[in-house]
Amino acid sequence: MSRALLNTLRTTSRCTPILRHVPSSSSSSPSRILLPAAQVRWSSHSPLGSAPVNVRKPVTINTIQSLYRKNEPITMITAHDFPSAHVADHAGMDMILVGDSLAMVALGMEDTSEVLMEEMLLHCKSVARATKGAFTVGDLPMGTYEISPAQALESAIRMIKVGRVKSVKLEGGKEMASTIEKVTGAGIPVLAHIGLTPQRQNALGGFRVQGKSTSSALKLLEDAFAVQEAGAFAVVLEAVPAEVAALVTKELNIPTIGIGAGNGCSGQVLVQVDMLGNFPPGRFLPKFVKQYGNVWDETYRALSQYKNEVKSREYPAPEHTYPMPKEAFADFEKTIEEEKEKVRLQNFDLL
Ligand SMILES: Nc1nc(=O)c2c([nH]1)NC[C@@H]1CN(c3ccc(C(=O)N[C@@H](CCC(=O)O)C(=O)O)cc3)CN21
Ligand SMILES: CC(C)C(=O)C(=O)O
User: Fold this and answer.
1) Which residue, judged by its Cα, is nearest atom 2 of ligand 2?
2) Torsion of the alpha carbons at 216, 221, 222 and 226, rounded to the nearest 10
């Protein structure tokens, strides 16, 4: 036992039970700093974790083009942080979108109008760090691109430079053509987004299916042509009748990525937490969402079991603890008893 610890035992034990003052192995303990590098382990969610190696060629804009030419459906999913992007990338998604649905699904906001550029950038960065294979797209949040093409380009550049994504998405058709031209002209790929554009929910009168009448279907086609002409590499079609989306897809020579737009699109996108079922029971889900998992139930079950096992002292079990040679512990106990005895005698002397 070190002299310092013995001194601590001596001085503190006069007024308080000594065991409270034995330094613990908590994370704030300075001894942690002295660990040799080889012993330092990272969480499995960190970039240096022991996650399986993902060996696929990174998806580029050319890969997307080539999938489109081969008529192979393009897969896209949203992600909002390192773990959700990590798993999406490993599952082999072609594209990962940091959608502004981040506002609701990760930040608990009411709708997408509240999310700020700085918040999008933070999440884009964490997604970009996890994504080695998929092509990343960052959503330009409301208010960062509508004022002028110059404003849009400035925001798009921030997305690339700070957010570390490979392309940007913005909502709007014909009226956004000059903006899309400006951004793509600077070498930043743009994914357009037409049909139901959630950032304009107040003008649309809510989340309403678009292109249901002949005239609104024609407007959708017009918007699709306009964004294609302006240089968008693909276009999201959200909440439009399947036959309209299929026809628009046929008429275009860039890929359409459907969400609530049926099976005739060149690819599909969904919000990851929706399709994973990672939300409490009873929450409204758009009818186009297919729930492929039940992550909420599984998480709830695991957390409840953990809670119960901690309360009942079932966890941690012996296999979750670190062994120590019996003799070393016996010595440890004995030394403490001896020290306590010495202190008792000293205190007695002082009387
Ligand atoms: N979690 C989440 N997932 C999404 O897919 C999503 C969001 N949030 N927020 C932004 C938009 C809103 N989305 C929605 C929401 C509702 C419908 C919807 O189903 N609306 C009515 C349509 C009524 C009509 O016009 O016919 C419906 O009853 O189907 C569609 C898209 C899709 N987006
Ligand atoms: C659903 C997709 C297309 C989206 O825009 C988002 O997640 O914000």
Assistant:
1) 99
2) 140
CATH of the domain at 82: 3.20.20.60
Which H helix or E strand runs over 136? strand 135-139
Tell me whether residue 205 is in a domain: yes
Ligand 1 pocket check for 101: Cβ under 6 Å: yes
* Kind plus residue range of the DSSP H or E element containing 335: helix 326-350
The angle subtended at Cα 230 by Cα 118 and Cα 94, nearest 5°, is 60
Closest CA to 159 of 187, 140, 145, 179: 140
Q: Are 192 and 232 in contact (CB under 8 A)?
A: yes
Does the complex come out with an ipTM higher than 0.90?
yes
| Strand, coil or helix: 67 | helix
Ligand nearest to the CA of 277: 1
Mutate to test the pocket of ligand 1, among 105, 139, 207 (most ligand atoms within 8 A of CB): 207
pLDDT, tens digit, 9 for 90 and up, residues 196-232: 999 999 999 999 999 999 999 999 999 999 999 999 9
The pLDDT tens digits of the residues spanning 300-336 come to: 999 999 999 999 999 999 999 999 999 999 999 999 9
Asked, for residue 159, whether it belongs to a domain, the answer is yes
Task: Provide the 3-class DSSP secondary structure of residue 250.
Answer: helix
Is the pLDDT at 53 greater than 70? The verdict is no
Is pLDDT above 60 for 337? yes
pTM: 0.86
DSSP string, 22-65: SPP--TT-GGGGGS-GGG----TTSTTS-PPP---PPP-HHHHH
Decide if 286 is inside a domain: yes
Per-residue pLDDT tens digits for 55-93: 799 999 999 999 999 999 999 999 999 999 999 999 999
Range of the domain at 262: 61-300
Q: Among 114, 175, 238, 319, which one carries the catalytic annotation?
A: 238
Q: Which residue lies with its CA nearest to atom 26 of ligand 1?
A: 209
Instruction: Decide whether any atom of ligand 1 lies within 6 Å of the 74 Cβ.
Output: no
146 is catalytic: no
Domain count, the chain: 1
Lookup result for tokens 């700070």: 162
